[in-house]
Design goal:
This protein has 183 residues and is α+β, with helices and mostly antiparallel strands. It has helices at 34-43, 58-61, 70-84, 89-104, 108-124, 130-182; strands spanning 14-21, 26-33, 50-55. Strands 1-2-3 form a three-stranded antiparallel sheet. α4 (89-104) packs antiparallel against α5. It is globular and about 55 Å long. The termini are far apart. The relative contact order is 0.12.
């Protein structure tokens, strides 16, 4: 379990690795420090935050979304604490709780972004203009959640229209077959 209360940043960069196996139709996702991820891939050893093999396409089908913009809201509070130089866990607990909740959700996109959010918070704490730097960095992380929300409704509309078209078309063709059959 990742420690969202740690005041020390990890020693290595957190990476998200996606491997696809077309023959088995699976995807493997590994999240962790880059050195450990490399060890996990090469020798199947190393402590990582997430390692799962799933059916191909699950990452896209279950990708984290943020219709309520909770990620941005919680990040803005963390950015405020960077400015105020608060590092007391009691004051940060609601926001740390949000990150923990996303971490334990098991959705790899949420796991990765929760860890990266905390890592960015650690990096920007105590740095001049740290709040602005933090906000800019996490906004880039959260863009995919918002983009998904905006396009998801379009996708649903297009899918619904296609489904309705197929149902209507099928009914018309079935009616034509029935009317020809009755003659």
């Amino acid at each position: 379990m990742y420690d969202f209360t740690s005041k020390n940043r990890g020693s290595d960069r957190i990476v998200f690795l996606l491997t696809l196996d077309k023959k088995k139709k699976t995807e493997r996702i590994i999240i962790g420090e880059s050195v450990m991820v490399k060890l996990r891939i090469e020798r199947n050893i190393g402590e990582v935050l997430y390692d799962e093999t799933r059916p191909l396409g699950q990452l896209l089908l279950n990708f984290e979304s943020d219709p309520g913009k909770e990620w941005h809201l919680n990040a803005s509070y963390l950015a405020d604490y960077i400015v105020k130089k608060f590092r007391q866990n009691k004051l940060l607990e609601p926001y740390i709780g949000f990150l923990r909740q996303k971490y334990v959700s098991g959705e790899p996109s949420a796991v990765f972004v929760a860890v990266k959010t905390w890592e960015e918070y650690q990096l920007c704490y105590g740095v001049k203009d740290g709040s602005d730097v933090f906000t800019g960095r996490v906004s880039k992380l959260y863009k995919s959640f918002i983009a998904l929300n905006q396009h998801n409704s379009l996708w649903e509309i297009k899918s619904s229209k296609n489904l309705i078209y197929r149902i209507i078309h099928r009914r018309k063709s079935n009616q034509a077959v029935l009317s020809n059959f009755r003659r």
